């Protein structure tokens, strides 16, 4: 693709810088003193204990905080493109993404991927006109751990696809540290972006009390333009957003055995509009009657207490997560257009209503804006208490390790929706001459056609444990079990034109036991093989009432007269074989795994497109099988290559004729193929200066966004993205020139239905910028 002329000069500067840098010096560069002779060992806390990645009998990808910054991974979409078998579905902006691992995906009910900020769970249930997980900005992270496969034993019911752990840099009790990051960039078809970030680590009392503070502000220019009804652009860059973040951690080492850590994270994101475009205009343009901005606020606080008993560590984690998402959306399709169609004698069956001119004038009503004001308030308190044995000691008396714990979470969700048709009364009277009843009810006096209040109380209680036995020092057998009880209660209040039931109360209970078994074998000191079988589980829930009159035609298409009041839990078994190895004097790392997942009673959203409602139902069964491979190799002094590849085959194994699902149909979500390649080269430029070049390329294969063949999002295309950076590190600071989406790919890759109106989602266009980091 051609690069637009306004970016011709920055692109040339990037190429010129690369040429100049490559000509600096002719001799082979020496190995820098900062460079390790081999690939560093990776330490994780995925199993609630600190251990080497190779000791964990499951597939895990780890991205260091440095890698996140170097590759400019800013959000879940960026993260999903670089982590094998992690994918995403986006509804147009920050906080509107759902994540999928190994094809286990859902935009309804509880998430299939649990997300943790340090030890605090921040996953929420999709409900109340919302679909999207909290999206904290990824800064001052030590690493991100992506655990593939069900984590039902240690992480609970929302982890049937996997778990993502965002691990912050810890407080250092000994050293003062200050880091600053400043970034300025420009987006093709958009404007100027910025990132300003500062982190300070303060050892208040040496070896006893320390504080770590971080502040970040981010501004992303919009790149989508708005057109009026005549197709004329009247606004540019409508999907801009700004975020402000403050995070803090205080570590108190009360005694050599007792430590207390308090942490807080507060973020506020203001969305100008969604980044969705019209399907017929791939040049980043959209025409709609209502702007769709919003404000997403997230606050996470926690207290972690750890006591060392010498023989085991006792840990208590208390956390509180609060999210408030205010958003205006365009409900013209299912409010104005629904009524206009009905007045013309369309569905649901009703006599046609001619206007004063004797003609069918429903199109006049259909053209009125239909603003919808949604709010989502979520509060979740969680507590986990666990006791973890010390690491395995081959010389010890007992060849076992173990973990035991209790978990409780209470999530309160309050969602509201107020839906209007602008100037409806005035237009209706002027068109039809009187305030006549419509579809058996009177016209609302305030133009408000629907109001919905949803209160949902989600509680989970669990006990869990794992024990590992070492019959030989190089062989480990592990068995684990989590037993949980979940209860969800819901109260829905409906008022307005589309109301068929004023109040709907209900509750649903779930019980589950999620076992896990694994075998780990250290074939030699550099090669570990494992086999794992584990169960995943997701809580059921309650469907909000669906108006039987207005939705009669939609329901009948599925052979129903009413929507089901509840939906059941779904569950799966994951069977996995894998190996983790180091070769060639620790210069080559290979991690690979194969898996087979049997998924039953799948929870799927069933849209009722004409009337604008939906419900959740359990749809048959599916099988997901595939393979993941990650390779890292140091090819020479200063040169490192990374590569990963995924094959995932995820299909329904049972037909559901009423919903149009046939055996062999692809389950929505994950692409069948994906790959990621990174290349980094660094060399000494002079004393104290190291130059570097980094590139990354991601390929995402085709996938399906829905099981409905007539839906525009049914077939998602392949696409690829290229990024690069070049710069130098001068001891205390680093300067780099970088590019994202270097080839300016502008393909529509997903077609989400925003309020049932199909629109297009594209990658952000070409970004070119300069970043400066300073360390003190």
Produce a short descriptive summary:
With 776 residues, this protein is mostly beta strands. The chain is 7% helix and 52% strand. The longest helix has 15 residues, at 8-22.
How are the elements arranged and paired?
Blueprint: H1 8-22, E1 43-44, E2 51-52, E3 60-64, H2 65-70, H3 76-82, E4 86-90, E5 97-101, E6 113-117, E7 120-121, E8 141-148, E9 162-168, E10 177-187, E11 192-205, E12 209-220, E13 225-227, E14 233-235, E15 241-253, E16 258-271, E17 285-286, E18 294-308, E19 312-330, H4 336-343, H5 362-366, E20 371-389, E21 400-420, H6 424-432, E22 448-472, E23 475-496, E24 503-524, E25 527-538, E26 541-542, H7 552-557, E27 566-567, E28 570-583, E29 588-608, E30 613-636, E31 639-652, E32 673-686, E33 689-700, E34 719-730, E35 733-740, E36 753-754, E37 757-758, E38 767-775
What is the 3D shape? globular
Output the structural class.
Answer: mainly beta
The low-confidence runs, each spanning 5 or more residues with pLDDT under 50, are 1-34
Mean pLDDT across residues: 88
Strands, count: 38
Gap between N and C termini, in Å? 42 Å
- How would a textbook summarize the main sheet? 22 strands, antiparallel, barrel
Report the radius of gyration as a whole number of Å.
Answer: 27 Å
CATH class: Mainly Beta
Number of domains: 1
CATH superfamily: TonB-dependent receptor, beta-barrel domain
Question: Can you tell me the CATH topology?
Answer: Maltoporin, Chain A
Specify the helix fraction band. Answer: under 10%
Indicate the proportion of strand residues. Answer: over 45%
- Counted by DSSP, the helix tally is 7
Per CATH, which architecture? Beta Barrel
């Amino acid at each position: 693709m051609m690069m637009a002329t306004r970016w011709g000069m920055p692109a040339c500067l990037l190429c010129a810088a690369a040429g100049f840098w490559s000509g600096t010096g002719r001799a082979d560069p020496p190995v820098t003193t900062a460079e390790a002779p081999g690939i560093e060992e990776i330490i994780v806390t995925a199993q609630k204990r600190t251990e080497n990645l190779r000791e964990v009998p499951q597939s895990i990808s780890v991205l260091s905080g440095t890698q996140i910054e170097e590759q400019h991974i800013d959000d879940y979409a960026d993260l999903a493109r670089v982590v094998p078998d992690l994918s995403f579905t986006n509804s147009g902006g920050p906080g509107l993404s759902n994540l999928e691992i190994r094809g286990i995906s859902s935009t309804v009910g509880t998430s299939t991927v649990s997300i943790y900020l340090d030890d605090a769970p921040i996953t929420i249930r999709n409900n109340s006109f919302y679909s999207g997980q909290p999206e904290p900005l990824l800064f001052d992270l030590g690493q991100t751990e992506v655990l593939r496969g069900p984590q039902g034993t240690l992480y609970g019911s929302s982890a049937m696809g996997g778990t993502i752990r965002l691990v912050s840099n810890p407080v250092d009790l000994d050293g003062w540290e200050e880091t600053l990051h400043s970034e300025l960039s420009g987006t093709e078809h958009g404007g100027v972006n910025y990132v300003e970030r500062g982190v300070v680590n303060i050892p208040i009392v040496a070896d006893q009390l320390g504080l770590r503070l971080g502040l970040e502000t981010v501004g992303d220019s919009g790149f989508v333009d708005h057109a009026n009804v005549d197709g004329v652009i009247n606004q540019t860059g409508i999907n801009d957003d700004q975020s402000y973040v403050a995070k803090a951690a205080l570590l108190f080492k009360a005694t050599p055995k007792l430590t207390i850590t308090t942490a807080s994270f507060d973020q506020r994101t203001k969305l100008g509009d969604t980044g969705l475009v019209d399907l017929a205009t791939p040049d980043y343009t959209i025409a709609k009657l209502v702007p769709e901005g919003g404000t997403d606020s997230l606050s996470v606080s926690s207290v972690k207490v750890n006591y060392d008993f010498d023989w085991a560590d006792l840990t208590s984690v208390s956390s509180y997560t609060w999210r408030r998402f205010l958003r205006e959306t365009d409900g013209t399709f299912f409010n104005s257009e629904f009524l206009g169609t009905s007045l013309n004698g369309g569905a649901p069956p009703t006599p046609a209503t001619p206007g004063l001119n004797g003609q069918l004038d429903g199109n006049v009503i259909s053209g009125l804006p239909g603003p919808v004001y949604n709010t989502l308030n979520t509060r979740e308190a969680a507590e986990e208490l666990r006791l973890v044995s010390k690491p395995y000691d081959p010389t010890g008396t007992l060849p076992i390790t173990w973990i035991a714990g209790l978990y409780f979470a209470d999530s309160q969700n309050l969602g509201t929706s107020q839906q209007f048709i602008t100037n409806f009364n005035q237009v209706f009277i002027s068109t039809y001459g009187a305030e006549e009843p419509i579809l058996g009810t009177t016209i609302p006096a305030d133009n408000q056609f629907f109001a919905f209040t949803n209160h949902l109380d989600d509680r989970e209680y669990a006990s869990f444990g794992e024990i590992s036995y070492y019959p030989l020092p190089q062989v480990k057998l592990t068995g684990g079990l989590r037993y949980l009880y979940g209860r969800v209660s819901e109260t829905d209040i409906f008022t307005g034109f589309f109301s068929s039931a004023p109040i709907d109360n209900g509750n649903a209970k779930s019980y589950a036991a999620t076992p896990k078994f694994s075998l780990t074998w250290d074939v030699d000191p550099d090669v570990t093989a494992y086999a794992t079988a584990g169960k995943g589980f997701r809580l059921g829930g309650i469907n909000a009432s669906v108006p039987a009159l207005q939705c009669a035609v939609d329901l009948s298409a599925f052979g129903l007269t009413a929507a089901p009041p509840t939906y059941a839990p779904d569950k799966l078994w994951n069977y996995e074989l894998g190996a983790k190895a180091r070769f060639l004097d620790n210069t080559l790392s290979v991690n690979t795994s194969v898996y087979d997942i049997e998924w039953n009673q799948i929870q799927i959203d069933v849209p009722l497109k004409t009337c604008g409602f939906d419900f959740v139902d359990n749809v048959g069964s599916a099988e997901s099988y595939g393979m993941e491979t990650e390779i890292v190799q140091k090819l020479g002094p200063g040169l490192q290559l990374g590569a990963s590849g995924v094959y995932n085959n995820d299909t329904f194994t049972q037909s559901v004729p009423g919903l149009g699902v046939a055996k062999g149909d692809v389950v929505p979500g994950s692409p069948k193929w994906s790959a990621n390649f990174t290349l980094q080269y660094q060399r000494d430029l002079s004393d104290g200066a190291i130059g570097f070049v980094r590139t990354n390329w991601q390929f995402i294969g085709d996938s399906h966004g829905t099981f409905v063949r007539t839906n525009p999002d049914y077939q998602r295309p392949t696409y690829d993205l290229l990024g690069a950076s070049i710069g130098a590190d001068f001891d205390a600071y680093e300067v780099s020139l970088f590019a994202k989406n270097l080839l300016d790919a502008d393909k529509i890759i997903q077609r989400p239905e925003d309020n049932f109106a199909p629109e297009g989602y594209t990658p952000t266009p070409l970004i070119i910028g300069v970043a400066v980091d300073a360390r003190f």
